[in-house]
Amino acid sequence: MSSLEILVPGAKQKLTASGTSNLFNLLKDLKAKVDQACRTAEEFTKLYYESVDRKRHTVPFVVRNYDIQHDNRHISTSPPDKQLMSRYYLDTGVLVWNGNGTIGKEMIQKFFEELPSSEHVIGSLDSQPVLDSIVSSQLTCVIQVSGFVRFQDNVSKPFQQSFMITAEGDKWKIACDNFRLQESVEESKKHSSEV
Question: Where is the NTF2 domain (predicted)?
Answer without folding.
Answer: 40-181
